[in-house]
Amino acid sequence: MKQLVWLGLSAGTTLLSSLLFTGLGARVAWGQPTATVQTNLQLAVCLSDWHGALNQIDRLLASPEIPPKDRATLVVLKRQFQRYRLDRVAHPPTQACDPLLTGFGISGFTPLQPLNLDAALYASVGQGQPNVTSDQHIRRQQAVYAAGLHQIHATPIPALSPAQRLNTSNGSGVTAGAVNRGVNVYAFLAQAGDVVTLDVNVTRILPGLLYHDDDSQLFLFDSEGRLLADNDDFTRLQSRLSDVSLPSTGVYYAAITTYNNNPLLNSDRQITGWQGLGGSSIEYTLTVTGLTPADQVGRLEE
């Protein structure tokens, strides 16, 4: 099996590390920040998703602001990844991939589900209604979140940072949270063609800034921060996105707010910020189903 020469897996990677692990300050085609494309490229390589890696390299090469020396290096990388795709090379993730993969449920990496939420909040993940154990349990969950023990991570998209990474090793993910005037963001891995359902179930209603209700809002973004789908008031005032087909392999972001806190989008429907103050205050569970198990993502690409 061929060996990768990137992400610190062999000698002579100083230039590649400088190019792909630090922001170039440029903007690639369609106005996408280079840092986002670099992160997506790193993730694709960690997943042995050579089709996705080639797509991100093409985006970098499309930027007139990439220096000629770095452009030449990208051309070399592109040829190498084309060979890997042709030979269907699958390289196991290494420690260099830890910051990107930790929390998604990839084999060998520590999952971040606090207090076994799958067993505690659901009788069976994604099936039927949540089986909430007790108000005391929910309050304990909120204490965990308030203490920051759910280990959220920075993302390359400022408006979607930080984000909690969902463990989707079984093809689904579940977590709990609370939101009022802000926004909660969750990141999960998905395979191109996955048809996913995201469900927000409000478990507790608290007095809000303007309202005392369960009015949640749910937004789904791709790895470049482009809004794919959103929902408000699917069941009464609660939110759900059903059977959304995902166009590419990589990280997706689910954002939860209360009414009326909405994303600001540019002409390409990419998020640039948030507008409004959520008027309600809720505690909830979020379930994501229909995913390819995390340790298989990318490795099924043709």
Give a brief rundown of this model.
This protein is an alpha+beta fold.
Name the features:
302 residues; 4-stranded antiparallel sheet; globular; alpha+beta; single chain
Describe the fold and architecture:
The protein has seven helices and eleven strands. The strands form three sheets. Strands 1-3-8-5-6 form a five-stranded mixed β-sheet. Strands 2-11-4-7 form a four-stranded antiparallel β-sheet. Strands 9-10 form a two-stranded antiparallel ribbon. The two termini are 17 Å apart. Helix 2 packs antiparallel against helix 3 (50-61) and helix 3 packs antiparallel against helix 4 (68-87). The chain is 25% helix and 24% strand. The protein has 302 residues and is α+β, with helices and mostly antiparallel strands. The longest helix has 20 residues, at 68-87.
What layout of secondary structure does this protein have?
Layout: H1 14-21, H2 34-46, H3 50-61, H4 68-87, H5 98-101, H6 117-121, H7 135-146, E1 164-165, E2 173-179, E3 184-190, E4 195-206, E5 216-221, E6 227-232, E7 240-245, E8 250-258, E9 262-265, E10 271-275, E11 281-289
Parallel strand pairs: 1-3
Antiparallel strand pairs: 2-11, 3-8, 4-7, 4-11, 5-6, 5-8, 9-10
Helix pairs in contact: 2-3, 3-4
